[in-house]
Amino acid sequence: MWIDSNTYIGHWPFRQLKNNTCKDILERMDRHQVEASVVSNLNGIFYKDTQPANQELHEDIRSNKRYQDRLVPFAVINPIYSGWKDDLKKSISKLGMKGVRLYPKYHGYTLKNPSCVELVKKVRDLGLPVALSLRMVDSRPSSWLDINQEWTLKDVVPIIEAVPDAKFMILNIANNTLLEPDQLDLFKKSNLFMDTSGRNITNLGKLIDTFGKEKFGFGTHAPILDYRTGALRIESLNEDEADEKTKQQLRYYNIKHLLQL
């Protein structure tokens, strides 16, 4: 069994995306024997008010029983938008969202912003995870209108330090994974999950040794990235890097445990 921890519907304003609907996601999941997928709406990154994007995702999933059974929706919330508290409450209580995704680079705030810290604490109190992407798209071939700044792993340290007992998902790790000893210790102690989609997960075996096998799991960042690389990084691990039990943790168990599916 596989569970994809990182996928999207919706549009990207600077490039054409294909296979970016709930129908497309489910067809891809069936083809690759993926049982469930965590999904967000890309449109929420670019809407001034993110809540209509969450409503769009909810309506799409509600349109088909199979989507409801197998897609795990995450809300996009902007903590510097005036109505964010109502957005969060409605997303969880009425729309059934199972987590929150934050996009500080696109919405114009830092992880130290008091409203961001307050949001993460509220999500923590609900027992749900907060997801952060280190990269959305490769900045090199992007439109001049897109952002050209990307995060390394240490850039998310401030919010983990601020709310160390929250659940975190760190996705699409495309850049430097080096941490100071105290930062690494913080990561190891935190309830934290990293997916296998990012380009800097090329040596997954070494990262497992560094951070622990319970910290990683399958993710694709589809449809922006391809659907197979994240899985191949798990399947290509040698026996001395990961036995079958560890691979099962990476394929589905770690994210299933985090999300309490």
TrEMBL record:
Span of domain Amidohydrolase-related: 45-257
Record-linked Pfam families: Amidohydro_2
Residues making up the signal peptide according to the UniProt record: none
Recorded superkingdom: Bacteria
InterPro entries referenced in this protein's UniProt entry, alphabetically: ACMSD (IPR032465), Amidohydro-rel (IPR006680), Metal_Hydrolase (IPR032466)
Alphabetic keyword roster: Lyase
UniProt-listed SUPFAM superfamilies: Metallo-dependent hydrolases
Protein name: Amidohydrolase family protein
Species of the source: Negadavirga shengliensis
